Amino acid sequence: MMRKNMKNIMITGIVLLICTFASSLTASADSNGSLFEVDASLLNMRSGPTHEAPIVGQLEDGDQLRTFEEQNGWVKTFFAGEPVWVNSEYLKLIKEDHNKEDENIEDSNSISKTVEEQVEKENDVIFSSSEPIFIDLPKDYEFFLESREVKISEHAVTVTKEILEDYHIVLDAGHGGHDSGGTNNGLKEKDLTIKTASVIGEMLEEKGAKVSYTREESDKEFISLQERVKMSNKLDADAFISLHYDWFDDPNANGIGTYFYHNNNKSLDLAKSVHSSLIHHVDMKDRGVRNVPYYVLRNNQEPAILLELGFISNPNNFEVIQKDEYREKVAEAITNGLIEYFSK
Ligand SMILES: [Zn+2]
Q1: Name one GO biological process term (predicted).
Q2: pLDDT tens digits, 311-340
Q3: Around Cβ 293, how many Cβ atoms within 10 Å?
Q4: Other Cβ atoms within 10 Å of 213 Cβ, number
């Protein structure tokens, strides 16, 4: 329940703050920046100005947003920094023209920069001003900015929490020891999975999560599937993610697949959130989300998924999956997927 509230706050907060910044950046362009309120119980945000465009989020009755462009009854606003469109039929005009206020926000761009650069510790005041900050949020509102829960009051922006702070994630680097997993031209799956796990783990820790590993970099030992699951169940973590790279006889097989097992309802949600984030972030073929009774999924008491992050046996995937850049993208995608999953 608490998590649900957090999500609403997160969506509204990000929309409003980003809009405020965006409006000041585009004030000189031909944008109106009018302030609207949602006048419907739920309003879909879509990636384009049509009913067919994919839904990227939802606003609730009373949420406020700024609009910057109109097309056939659809208006553009911003969500998590990305332009999104909502049907203007369900909006109520609150205040026209934001340009005058923008002159007062003089340096909202640098406020944004200050926020990003200075957010370090919990309860840090990351911005304060003797002058009011023009951000259209109710007083003492809490929301997330750049993965931190932030509190905005009239003259200060304060960090209250890291977004994944209450969560414990188990990362399971597939294979290890005498079990190399898939191999191709000297490349071993066990080495790729351990590198991937450490990049993901670092990123999750940056967002405040507690991370445990079933296998450490220095660990040359073989760890059985039974031991991995035992470890996970004992830790009583919030999510278990097993990392693999695929191998198949046919070198044409390629792409990313996500697996879950139906013994845990949450596993499907976790699989969906992480998979869609991966497909969105990484330029790989979508092999879908599938229900498969793998041992580490079947016997896990935590929400558990297994990711096949590309094919070692496919020439194109083989090149891509060895790059640091790919691991970074995968880590970012998994982190975002987890944030989405936990905020449901
Ligand atoms: Zn594997």
Answers
A1: cell wall organization
A2: 999 999 999 999 999 999 999 999 999 998
A3: 11
A4: 17
Where helices occur in the chain by DSSP H, the ranges are 2-25, 99-104, 108-118, 189-206, 225-235, 265-281, 295-298, 315-320, 324-342
Number of domains, the chain:
2
How far is the centre of ligand 1, averaged over its atoms, from the C-alpha of 301 (Å)? 21
What is the CA 133 to chain-centroid distance, rounded? 28
Distance 325 CA to ligand 1 centre (A): 21
- Find the 144 Cα to ligand 1 centroid distance in Å: 36
DSSP state of 88: G
Q: What residue type is assigned to position 166 of the chain?
A: D
85: CA distance to ligand 1 center in Å?
Answer: 41
**Same domain, yes or no: 209 and 157:** no
Which one of 12-21, 25-34, 212-221, 329-338 scores highest in mean pLDDT? 329-338
Instruction: Identify whether residues 83 and 224 lie together within a single domain.
Output: no
Check whether residue 202 and residue 139 sit in a common domain. no
Residue 153 is part of which domain span? 1-162
In the structure, what pLDDT confidence band is assigned to residue 309 with cuts at 50, 70 and 90? very high
CA 238 to ligand 1 centroid distance, Å:
23
